[in-house]
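Hey Z.,

So I finally got round to the glutamine thing we talked about over coffee. Here's the setup:
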Amino acid sequence: MQNNCKIIFVTGGVLSSLGKGITSASVATILKHSGYKTTMLKIDPYLNVDPGTMSPLEHGEVFVTEDGAETDLDIGHYERFLNTNLGKINNITTGQIYSKVIKKERQGKYLGQTIQVIPHIVDEIKSAIYKASVGFEFMIVELGGTVGDIEGMPFLEAVREIVFENDKSKTMNIHVTLVPYLKAAGELKTKPTQHSVQELRRIGIKPHMLVCRCERDLPDQLKKKLAYSCDVNMDAVIQAKDAKTIYAVPKEFLDDGIFGPLVTHFNLDKTKPDMTKWNNLVNNLLNPQKTIKLCFVGKYLKLKEAYKSLLEAISHSGAKHNTKVDIIWCDSETVKLKGAKNILQNCDCILVAGGFGDRGVDGKIEAIKYARTHDIPYFGICLGMQLAYIEYLQNVVGIKDATSVEFNKETKEPAVYLIEEFINTTGSKEIRTVKSPLGGTMRLGSYPFEAKKGTKLYDAYGKDIQKERHRHRYEANPIYKERLQKAGMIISAQSGELIEAVEIPSHKWFVAVQFHPEFTSTLERPNPIIDEFIKVSIKNKQGER
Ligand code: GLN
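And the result:
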């Protein structure tokens, strides 16, 4: 299945964490802003079918797409850079590819053949790559891992074959590498890059462009050395110095001349990309006029990547309002130990993020109570909503034992419970019980809701039907609805019978949502409810309190 989409493969060399994801997203952004219909694909060579069952402390955030796929957090970067929605077909893993091949083998589809990595696994990979490219002019494919890793081999072979079976001007290989600075020698070193490119060529892949991560400017004579030793045109050796914000990377690449080699390689007819609006937002991020302090109460603080999309979404609104949002990290267990007042008293707003399991829950409830009783803008997301529901039931309605069945399976007051049957986004019935396997059984993906008129949610979203993404197993229990409303907490949105948002009208700004609004925020289009929270908090700081 071949089409007219041009494909750029991005591989990584020397070591991990070089910013392949941001490099890929930046190249895609440049092409999109030049007028090309562009998409992206992330290949993860691990054996998990998806990262849904991995710990956030190990793998960072699990990003959820509109169509309910649990994906690598790089997909989030792609959406935020491209200002578009991607889906299940934009993230493939070794686990997915092998599952498909084994399933076909069981169905007898290979007609007696011996199933092997070459050709069967590689063919399946190639077909997934081509499938994701249909309907686009450009696709950037990022290969996870580092060249030379055993698990990446079948994917590199698929890249080699795709390059081989297509016209030269249809594919391009970009290799992201490290050019370290050795203090003792006072020099930038090219050897690791040379070795990494040799490894790539041994597999049969020739890079057409090098993106070199470096702490200092790459002088021309070094670019020349890299060009000669790696067989790459000199103008296609691009420096990638550490940027102050990831959103500045497209401009930095353009300043270093990345557009020229792209034009030459692909014979492009479009002129330079129009990055005016983008660059203005980046400028706001780099030179904010105001600052607010946001207390971020969470429990995966050892790896901030666990909250990637949320942190990015907050910065998108910050950029829009020309404000630096200073995050004060509050470990939920510390809130419990030291008391909410000591930790939270100097902030302009409080956020309780999503999470799983009962560790840190008491501290989160204390933080919510503090925000509620001190009229400090509060925003709760997912678990942050479930706990706001529980806190109100415990401390205002007076149901002391209200809790979630996630923390106490036998509870008599299941304020947050497991709903066993519901209709999913595609209209089919989903069944989940305590016995369901963990992988892929949560409420996942986009669900529609309508904000109730006169609520703060309505201020943010307006009257239209909206969609936001979900990733949770438990739901707020509607049998407590009446009692809550009588006591002053309202339900401001539902998706069918499922409770999507609650708020306290008498409070300055207390809103909590069951969905994850952070997944739909992009630099050019901040999420409405996060934006409203930041806007109100800026106002709160400006002396209203
Ligand atoms: N643990 C809760 C649930 O599964 C909340 C999940 C979340 O915050 N993403 O329902």
